[in-house]
Design a protein that fits this description.
Layout lengths: L1 E3 L2 E4 L2 E2 H8 L3 E5 H14 L6 E5 L6 H9 L3 E4 L2 H9 L7 E3 L6 H9 L4 E4 L2 H13 L4 E6 L25 H12 L4 E7 L9 H18 L5 E3 L17 H14 L3 E4 L3 H4 L3 E12 L3 E6 L8 H5 L5 E3 L6 E2 L2 E5 L8 E5 L2 E2 L6 E5 L19 E6 L2 E6 L4 H4 L1
The chain binds ligand LLP.
Length: about 400
């Protein structure tokens, strides 16, 4: 994504052109960036040859998942719907892991029938439920147990998952009990220890800490785990020149760990694969001068893109046509929804803009469309995949008749 002749461009197409053909708001994804991210991810962990299971929750567009599948990735799913999408996208069931604290009997039955690779259980009751269902089907099912390592991921509180006050996983005491329990079970086969301490992690140290905790626990449990699922969480830079995760150091820590434990590593990355491939184009409906600041009211809103309203997340927001004329006044970019949290970002000054101009919100490929809703009976945006100068519609804009 860069300015060419003052026009902001994704691959070889300007956002102006895209908006003219497909209207706004529109999600656009760069195919080449997706490819580059997957290649980089693989390269960063080449020395440990992990199984990489894309976290479907970050982007549930089936065409995107189909592209990801072509690079050999599996899937990490957290619901029956996600599992169905992953299978429909062509991901082999032996590369699918099922995570989540609240899997229902229906979901577990479906996962077993589809012969998925691994169910990562998160409680005693869940292990027993999987066991009961497996018994009724006269099967022995491969499971993992998610450990809560009580490790601070040093990320936003709302997206932290590895501390003891979080609902995820089981503590060490329960973990040991479950290992013992599984050893004597005819219907569950304990293959994996899984963890996921949080999302948007930019510091390798929490990962190092987490590995130390797992190391201790495995030694104490005296059990040979064929797989260690380290989850996802690798952060991306949402702002220019911001800190980056040191993959070398993370990988080195894993290699050290693997010298002691001969297991295969599983990763469940979402954001690091799709975060920076996505852009949301939006049109300015009105500019309202309210004295000290201008409210720039866009046709995209918190229902289309929720991260700023939900986490106070900041996303680069750029004019699609650059003019280098700066207006020294605060500009607050907001959506039309009847909520004060329906705001994207505020700038002390911005370039001169007018109604009907286009604005591009960047890095919305992860937890963008997948977190969107129909709040205020607003149809969901169209999704487009850009490959060079080709634009493919990968999901149509919702119509009012879909909603009413
Ligand atoms: N594995 C498990 C078990 C997870 O819960 C998650 C994310 C992932 C993998 C993928 O994590 P990633 O590599 O994408 O960080 N909506 C929030 C993020 C929530 C993440 C939930 N779990 C956001 O927009 O920042």
């Amino acid at each position: 994504m860069k300015y060419i002749n003052k026009k902001l461009t994704i691959e070889k197409v300007s956002f102006q052109k895209i908006a003219k053909i497909y209207n706004t708001p529109a999600y656009c994804y760069s195919y080449n960036k997706l490819k580059e991210n997957i290649k980089n991810f693989k390269k960063n962990f080449k020395s440990i040859s992990p199984l990489i299971c894309f976290a479907v929750k970050s982007n549930t567009n089936i065409k995107i998942i189909r592209e990801i599948k072509k690079f050999g990735l599996g899937a990490d799913v957290v619901s029956m719907g996600e599992l169905m999408i992953a299978l429909k996208a062509g991901i082999k069931s032996n590369k699918i892991v099922f995570s989540g604290v609240g899997k229902t009997s229906e979901e577990i039955k479906y996962a077993i029938d589809k012969k998925i690779f691994l169910i990562n259980a998160e409680s005693v009751s869940e292990v027993k439920k999987i066991e009961r269902i497996a018994k009724s089907k006269k099967k022995k099912i491969k499971i993992g147990i998610r450990l809560n390592p009580n490790t601070d991921a040093k990320t936003l509180n709302q997206i932290s998952t590895g501390k003891k006050e979080n609902k995820f996983g089981v503590n060490d005491k329960v973990f040991f009990e479950l290992v013992k329990y599984c050893k004597n079970s005819n219907n569950v086969d304990l293959k994996c220890l899984s963890v996921h301490i949080g999302s948007q992690i930019l510091d390798h140290k929490p990962y190092q800490k987490m590995l130390k905790v797992i190391n201790k626990i495995i030694k104490k449990s005296n059990y040979n785990f064929e797989f260690i699922d380290l989850g996802g969480g690798m952060g991306i830079s949402y702002e220019n020149n911001k800190k980056k995760l040191d993959y070398k150091k993370y990988c080195l820590a894993i290699k050290k760990f693997l010298k002691i434990h001969k297991s295969k590593i599983i990763f469940e990355p979402g954001r690091s694969i799709v975060g920076n491939i996505g852009f949301l184009i939006s049109k300015i409906i009105y500019i309202k001068d309210s004295g000290k600041k201008n409210f720039v009211i866009l046709d995209a809103a918190m229902n289309d893109f929720m991260r700023p309203a939900l986490y106070g997340a900041l996303h680069r927001t750029l004019p699609s046509l650059k003019n280098n004329k700066i207006l020294k006044k605060t500009h607050e970019f907001v959506g039309p929804i009847c909520e004060s949290t329906d705001r994207f970002i505020s700038f002390k000054n911005f370039q001169e803009i007018k109604e009907n101009d286009l604005i591009v919100i960047c890095d919305v490929g992860a937890y963008g469309m997948s977190l969107s809703s129909n709040y205020n009976v607003r149809p969901k945006p169209i999704e487009l995949l850009i490959k060079g100068s080709k634009i493919n519609v990968i999901k149509k804009r919702q119509k009012y008749k879909d909603l009413i």
